[in-house]
Amino acid sequence: MIENPSKYAAEIKQEAKRLGFMSCGISKAEFLEEEAPRLEKWLQKNRHGEMSYMENHFDKRLDPTKLVPGSKSVISLLLNYFPSETQDESAYKISKYAYGTDYHFVIKDKLKQLLAFIQDEIGDVHGRAFVDSAPVLDKAWAAKSGLGWIGKHSNLLTKQVGSFYFIAELIVDLDLAYDSPVTDHCGACTACIDACPTQAIVEPYVVDGSKCISYFTIELKNELPTSMNGKFDDWMFGCDVCQDVCPWNRFSKAHREPLFNPNPELLSMSKKDWEEITEEVFQEIFRKSAVKRTKFSGLQRNIDFLKK
């Protein structure tokens, strides 16, 4: 196998585009030096709340060679999920990313195809696919590989397309040509900080996960704290406020992934419909959706909390 890092990188990016990914960037698999103190401080301040899994595998989160032995490159990929239609304005809301089929399945399938392509075209390459389900700092890798910058709301932002996309990785034992990070374009804007209903963005670029509506409505398994009464802005699963107000998301264009299209019923349901939802309707509407994570009982808990 004749090593040709630039040619391989170009071929991988072309195939990623063919598979429907929005963009692809590549960085060297090495210790994330800048992220280490940030992550340590964030955990020490208990900003992960009850998400105890965030404390696990600290070294693997920062060093991909510990996660995938022999790895040399991190291939980061973005997949658009911005919908062409959104829910009824007056309804209880779910995050746009959860409208259609659970992204884990959709993206994992595309990553497997991309890895198969690399093995067919380049040769004996080993690697693993990751979609937000392993100790990988997705946003840090995407920023390192030039796909965008981390915004003040701590999401990845890209000039042309905003932030409504999923991030995934292939970590492989293949040397490739690497991309360079881009500069930060948040400037003096504080739209996301000002708009957050629970003041979860405690300082620019730092989100207290334990104050985020997404944390309360998805991750927290206990009762919702009464101190948050009236602060959820009608979000019953996740929250998009910091992204909705971001000026860069004016450039978001609708995705072209049929699997991300919502059940038509989802878009037309009113508050009353949600309040009266049965388990059967829940199972039907969210049959393959990420919303199933919160279970019917969790969604009911969230709706009851919003009704107070």
From TrEMBL:
InterPro entries: 4Fe4S_Fe-S-bd, 4Fe4S_Fe_S_CS, QueG, QueG_DUF1730
Gene Ontology terms: cellular component: cytoplasm
GO BP terms in the entry: tRNA queuosine(34) biosynthetic process
Localization per Swiss-Prot or TrEMBL: Cytoplasm
Pfam families the record matches: Fer4_16, QueG_DUF1730
GO MF term set: 4 iron, 4 sulfur cluster binding; cobalamin binding; epoxyqueuosine reductase activity; metal ion binding
Cofactor annotation comment: Binds 2 [4Fe-4S] clusters per monomer.
Pathway in which the depicted protein is active: tRNA modification; tRNA-queuosine biosynthesis
Superkingdom classification of source: Bacteria
Active site per database record: 132 (proton donor)
EC nos: 1.17.99.6
Sorted UniProt keywords: 4Fe-4S, Cobalamin, Cobalt, Cytoplasm, Iron, Iron-sulfur, Metal-binding, Oxidoreductase, Queuosine biosynthesis, tRNA processing
Catalytic activity: epoxyqueuosine(34) in tRNA + AH2 = queuosine(34) in tRNA + A + H2O
Residues that, per the record, bind tRNA: 221
Binding site for cob(II)alamin: 61, 132, 156, 167, 214, 239-240
Residues annotated as binding [4Fe-4S] cluster 2: 196, 212, 239, 242
Binding residue positions for [4Fe-4S] cluster 1: 186, 189, 192, 246
Broad EC category: oxidoreductase
Keyword Transmembrane helix: no
Role played: Catalyzes the conversion of epoxyqueuosine (oQ) to queuosine (Q), which is a hypermodified base found in the wobble positions of tRNA(Asp), tRNA(Asn), tRNA(His) and tRNA(Tyr).
Subunit details: Monomer.
Protein name according to UniProt: Epoxyqueuosine reductase
Species of the source: Ulvibacter antarcticus
UniProt lineage: Bacteria, Pseudomonadati, Bacteroidota, Flavobacteriia, Flavobacteriales
Gene name of the record: queG
